[in-house]
Every structure is written in C-alpha cells, then in structure tokens.
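User: Hey, my collaborator sent me this sequence without any context and asked if I could get a structure. I don't really work with proteins. Can you help?
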Amino acid sequence: MRKVLDPLTGNWRSMASMGTNMASYDAAVLNGKLLVKEGWLWPFYVSPRGQVYDPRTDNWENMAVGLRKGWTGSSVVVYGHLFVVSELERLKLKVYDTETDSWDAINGPPLPEQICKPFAVNACDCHIYVVGRNLHVAVGHISRLLPDENSDEKWSFSVRWHVIDAPESLSVLTPSSSQVMFA
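Assistant: No problem. I've predicted the 3D structure and written it out in structure-token form, which is a compact way to encode the shape of the chain:
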C-alpha cells in the first residue's frame, strides 16, 4: 500500500500508483515534487525510466528527457537545485537546470580520488557529504555564484572539497547509506 504524508496536517493518505516498477532507483524532492529515477542496468540497451509525483494533484507523470538521461549518479538537493555525484569516479558534480532540461558541470575540482565506489551521498545546508569505500568522507562546500547584474546568465555554482580520512580500523568497511548528524 502506498501512502503519502501531508506535512501540514500530519495525516497519511493513499496515493496514486506509479504504474511501473523501478529497479536500482534514486529519488529526490525538488520544487515540492518527488522525482524517482531508475538506475542504469547492464546491458545498457534501454535508457532508465523516471517518474515525477506531484502530491498536490496525486498524479505521476513521465520525467523530462534531459533530467532522466543526465541523472547518472546519487543525488542531493542544495539551494533548491538538484546535484548529482556521478557513478563514474573522478567526475565533477553536475547540477540540473529546470528551465533548459539540461545538466551543467559546476566549477571546482572533481570528487577527490580517495572517494571510491561504492559511496553514499547526503546533504545539509550548503554541504554535500560523500562517504566512500573505506569510509573516507569528502565534504563539498557548495557556493552560489551570482550572475553579473546586467547579464542574462543564470546562477552558477562551485564546490570546494575537504577529505576526512577514516581510521585505519574502519578501512575494510563500505557505506550503504549516510545520515548527517550534528551533536
């Protein structure tokens, strides 16, 4: 049974069926909608599917082609924008542009080489946390770069990475998920 929580009332209610099953998926909430994207599966004959759920209308719709095809990794939402840490190691972060249905690499270095797959990704405020094999953690500080005052350009972003090495005693572990906790 599928349920959705109304955060205003605190009540759960039934929700519409997606109408399909997805394997190896990633999900994010962007602009009040739930985005669910199927992962790439071998052999790569068919491009993954993607669905968007709008809780206001209780309706699922197909994901925009550019969003679906460019979503090639684990996602987080920072500053109201969808970022993806690529499944391919040592690539730059990319951010989705809803107006053009396209992805842009952000300024700054790629994911640090100490962070190897498999990894888990999470975000809090303007930071992206990537926990990799051997439990090394890369913390990416995301900055918004203002366009020139007289320019038609859109916002752009940059990242600065800081790596936190895991203790040697944890070097045989791999992450399955990550949570950002502050004490």
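In plain terms: Residues 83 and 95 are 4 Å apart (CA to CA). You can pass these tokens on to your collaborator as they are.
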